[in-house]
Amino acid sequence: MGPFPSPCFVSILGGPAENLTPVLCPFCGVIRHAPCPLPLRMVRPEVYMHVSKLFFWTAGFLIAGALTCSLWFLRSHGFSAREKPVWYEAYAARHLRRLSSEPGARSLKNPVAATPLAIAEGRDHFADHCAACHGNNGSGKTEMNAGLYPPAPDMRQASTQELTDGELFYIIRNGIRFTGMPGWGGEDEDNWKLVGFIRHLPKLSAKEIELMQEINHLEE
Ligand code: HEC
Predict the structure, then answer these.
(1) How far apart are alpha carbons 186 and 129 in whole angstroms?
(2) How far is the CA of 98 from the centre of ligand 1 (A)?
(3) Is 33 found in the same domain as 92?
(4) Do residues 145 and 199 share a domain?
(5) Are residues 20 and 51 in the same domain?
(6) pLDDT reading at 194 higher than 50
(7) Coil, strand, or helix at residue 33?
(8) Left, alpha or beta for 55 (phi > 0: left; psi -120 to 50: alpha)?
(9) Do residues 11 and 4 touch, judged by C-beta distance below 8 A?
């Protein structure tokens, strides 16, 4: 049984040290009297060493190449808030956001009943505070939103409507970090009415949009 002084994967994975071929560990450079766990165990140590060096150099070149390309892309391209995020960026951001919300917030239910009065109150509040970015109809087609990165989504769509009451409430109260969405703080009851109004967005009537336009004079 040969001595195995340092933690070397060859000796750790190599099993019992009988019938051994000498193997040069590619990491620590020490000759081990242990079977090499890689398929290369049958080849001569010099060849094994050669192949593993080749592997590490190739990997090194690929990583360096990828880094150079990304740097080149960033320098020649720059960042503009007027662009639209690519799908995987939007996907990652949404999932990170979910991770960052308060535990328990997701399961909260809107305690304010969706009466016509509550929805109308939410609507006026939305027209006043939210429509500049989100649009009266929630589409996000506003001048301000065109320059935001990430932009406010069309809140009539499933991606917003499928958020729980609690998630919407949490977003309105706390905002979304690193985006244009401010945390409004505010009274809980007012925020719940906003949640009720966001749920109502897909069914918004032309008359309701007119009433909002009287408040904010926005086009949509
Ligand atoms: C200054 C612009 C701005 C204002 C004003 C604003 N928002 Fe937002 N809001 C955003 C942006 C940008 C996002 C998207 C953030 C992201 O991508 O995570 C957003 C996202 C949201 C979302 C999450 C939607 C989803 O599907 O991810 C809700 C809900 C929301 N806003 C509600 C409101 C309410 C209610 C108000 C008014 C009280 C308001 N916002 C005011 C910019 C704004």
Answers:
(1) 12
(2) 15
(3) no
(4) yes
(5) no
(6) yes
(7) strand
(8) alpha
(9) yes
Say which amino acid occupies 83: E
Domain range for 31: 1-42
102 vs 144: CA distance, rounded Å: 29
Distance of alpha carbon 58 from alpha carbon 218, whole angstroms: 58
Q: Which of 169, 181, 201 has most ligand 1 atoms within 8 Å of CB, for mutation?
A: 181
Same domain, 177 and 99: yes
Tell me the three state secondary structure of residue 96.
helix
Side chain identity at residue 143, one-letter code:
E
pLDDT, tens digit, for every residue of 128-141?
999 999 999 999 99
Pick the residue whose CA is nearest to atom 41 on ligand 1. Answer: 130
Out of 3-7, 19-23, 205-209, least confident range: 3-7
Q: Is the peptide bond before 116 cis (omega within 30 degrees of 0)?
A: no
What would the two tokens of residue 41 be? 């165990």
157 in Cβ contact with 141 (< 8 Å): no
- Quick one: which H or E segment has residue 32? strand 31-33
Tens-digit pLDDT profile for residues 6-52: 334 444 344 444 445 566 666 666 666 655 455 444 445 666 666 67
Give the chain's length.
220
| Cα(89)–Cα(17) distance, integer angstroms | 50
